[in-house]
Design brief:
By secondary structure, the chain is an alpha+beta fold. Helices cover 35% and strands 22% of the residues. The protein folds into two domains: 242 residues, BirA Bifunctional Protein, domain 2 (2-Layer Sandwich), CATH 3.30.930; 81 residues, 3-Layer(aba) Sandwich (Rossmann fold).
């Protein structure tokens, strides 16, 4: 038997209903916020992620599905969604068009890591990216959008926020952090030693408990912000307070990707085990420029769909649609013709085998249909159909043309 690859799961009933409900809910919220749908390829040049996500990140260093294709191109399956959207934004000269551009997307991402609960090698994300707005109010807006999505799905969360500074304050903080790491280099892990030489701030994201104990005394970025970043972070907290969105400041929250600056945020759940982050994002004002576009402020987020499926409160399932069946083979053509007409406005499932009325009613109940429509010899000769409303528990015989 051929089986799916490790860490690449099928989405089948009943999980598919939760998956579909999530996408419908998140899409509806994104559209209410003025975002429109975009789609980018699963396969991109490897250079895209090295320049955006950063060669110092674990994603690029350890986890990409990277290979050389038959044309000799160095390519990889996308490990995250933002870089591809930014690449499309620049390639199609939207950075030169000016104005504000807000997009949402969803689809599979790929990372070669050890599969565990909430972490797969093929997983799905829903994300939003906003280009052209430098105001911290846009940062708050995307945070509120995530909060609205989780509220609509009945998912509880804790919101963590931090500021990563910008090109004005980051260099000075970087030097302070390196000085601290130099003094404690003997007490940190190999990954942190490597990160110290490439992107020191990422040591704060280390999951090693011993390292985290060392970093408890490390200089904090929010204590070293320039005036502009400090004002933005103060405004961010003020607006969240005014809108009743609870948060905690996590000075070690740096996200796993190199392109973030200023606002960084993460939504976490205590109900899903060690992989507690269910959404995250922040501002990345320099990424468009890094990918050869014109300097464009940007902010966005991504939600890991598989991680939160079990947390979703599904709405009560209501009966809907039609089940249609024939009691003899001669009536089947009429059923098919009737189904084709009804499908212009309703969902219809047709049973192709001739069955008894009792069997058809069981079939309609099995698919949770609202109406069971049956044609037998009497109905065929009279040009009528037998209909039962399975919700109201009422039945009638009506002319086929009036169904």
């Amino acid at each position: 038997m051929i089986r799916s690859l490790r860490g690449m799961n099928d989405i089948l009933p009943p999980e598919n209903l939760r998956f579909e409900h999530f996408l419908q809910t998140a899409t509806a919220v994104a559209k209410r916020y003025g975002f429109t749908y975009v789609e980018t390829p699963l396969l991109e040049e490897t250079a895209l992620f090295k320049r955006s996500v950063g060669e110092s990140s674990d994603i690029v260093g350890k986890e990409m599905y990277q290979f050389t294709d038959k044309g000799g191109n160095d390519v990889c399956l996308r490990p995250e969604g933002t870089a591809g959207v930014v690449r499309a934004f620049v390639q199609h000269k939207l950075d030169r068009a000016g104005g504000i551009h807000r997009y949402f997307y969803h689809g599979p991402m790929f990372r070669y890591e050890r599969p565990q609960k909430g972490r797969l090698r093929e997983f799905h994300q829903f994300g939003c990216e906003s280009f052209g707005v430098a105001s911290v109010y846009e940062d708050v807006t995307v945070i509120m959008m995530v909060a609205d999505i989780f509220k609509a799905l009945g998912i509880g969360y804790r919101l963590k926020i931090n500021s990563l500074g910008d090109r004005n304050c980051m260099p000075q903080y970087r030097e302070k952090l390196i000085g601290f790491l130099d003094k404690h280099e003997a007490h940190i892990c190999e990954d942190c030693t490597r990160r110290k030489a490439t992107n020191p701030i990422r040591v704060l994201d280390c999951k090693n408990e011993h390292c985290q104990a060392v970093y408890a005394d490390a200089p904090k970025l929010i204590d070293n912000l320039c005036e502009g970043c400090g004002e933005d972070f103060h405004t961010l907290k003020k607006i969240l307070d005014e809108n009743g969105i609870a948060y905690e400041v996590d000075t070690h929250l740096v996200r796993g990707l190199d392109y973030y600056s200023k606002t960084a945020f993460e939504f976490v759940s205590d109900a899903i085990g060690a992989q507690s982050a269910i959404a995250g994002g922040g501002r990345y004002d320099r990424l468009v420029e890094f990918l050869d576009g014109r300097p464009t402020p940007a902010v966005g987020f991504a939600i890991g769909i598989e991680r939160l499926l079990e947390l979703i409160e599904m709405p009560e399932t209501k009966r809907s649609g039609y089940y249609m069946g024939a009691m003899d083979d001669e009536s089947l053509p009429q059923i098919l013709k009737l189904a084709a007409r009804k499908r212009a406005s309703d969902s219809v499932v047709v049973e192709y085998g001739a069955k008894s009325l009792k069997a058809h009613l069981k079939g309609a109940d099995r698919i949770n249909a609202r109406w069971c429509v049956v044609i037998g010899e009497n109905e065929r000769n009279a040009g009528t159909v037998w209909v039962k409303d399975l919700e109201a528990k009422s039945e009638s015989v009506v002319p086929a043309g009036e169904l």
